[in-house]
Amino acid sequence: MTTFRLAPSAIAAGYRLEAHETVGSTNALAMERVREGDRGDLWIVASRQESGRGRRGREWATPTGNLAATLLTIGTFQPAAAATLGFVAGLALSDALAAVVPTVRIGVAADGGNLKSGRFELKWPNDVLADGAKLSGILLESALLPDGRFAIAVGIGVNVVAHPEDVPYPATSLRKLGFAGDAGDLFLALSDAWVDNSRLWNGGRGLEAIRKRWLERAAGLGAPVSVRIDGRVVRGVFETIDEACCFVIREADGSLLRVAAGDVHFGAVASARDD
Predict the structure, then answer these.
(1) Over the Cα atoms of the chain, what is R_g?
(2) Residue 2 forms part of a structural domain
(3) What is its EC number (predicted)?
(4) Are residues 139 and 126 in contact, defined by beta-carbon separation less than 8 angstroms?
(5) What is the pLDDT of residues 154-197, one digit of tens each?
(6) 189 and 66, same structural domain?
(7) Which residues form the domain of 153?
(8) Is 137 helix (H, G, I), strand (E, B) or coil?
(9) pTM over 0.70
(10) Are residues 133 and 189 in the same domain?
(11) How many C-beta atoms lie closer than 10 Å to residue 234's C-beta?
(12) Mean pLDDT score of the chain, rounded to an integer?
């Protein structure tokens, strides 16, 4: 049985922990706690999740030994700022991974792009990559409370011991990268890293600092990219993310396109002909 513990820094900052071996969905449990009147700053974690979800309602399976974690946070921040908590989560997870996992291999990424030496990469808007393959997904869900505050469930799923095989994109696991620990070890580091990154974010007031840190770890920056938006595909070069953390593409004519939501593909996949 996996043992989950909060880092001393998280305990000192007032975070609490609700740990399970198996759940339906940690995000769903977090929203249940909202309805029950929970005050927030609550981590809900499990080493098996039976009905997790990814973006756009896609299934996110979490077999035994992987990590399913959700942080429930409640505050008066603006909705646009709340949406950027996914970037905070990506940074916190990449910090945690760097602390506990052996260095990532250097070479050619699974999607044909280049890898950055010794670093996990962040794929806009909500994935963490290793060796160019998907290691983790992040999902935010929110609810407006009667008093005007927002409740945000920040869901983080990590392939610790296993990764899906029947998916249309490269995937990997920490076990495959040489990680000898378990989901509890990773969560301990994650709960610590969240404290620093959330303080930097500061209710959205520190978003520019988060944006700069995120860009330092961005996958595919300056590389060919395609984004599927509302059934059409836009191609160009990944220029940056803007002050609102929208994805910015430089198209062939030099114009800049800002994307708030869409499916992003890099390298050879970005150049492939549409179906």
Answers:
(1) 18
(2) no
(3) 6.3.4.15
(4) yes
(5) 999 999 999 988 776 889 999 999 899 999 999 999 999 999 99
(6) yes
(7) 8-216
(8) strand
(9) yes
(10) yes
(11) 14
(12) 88
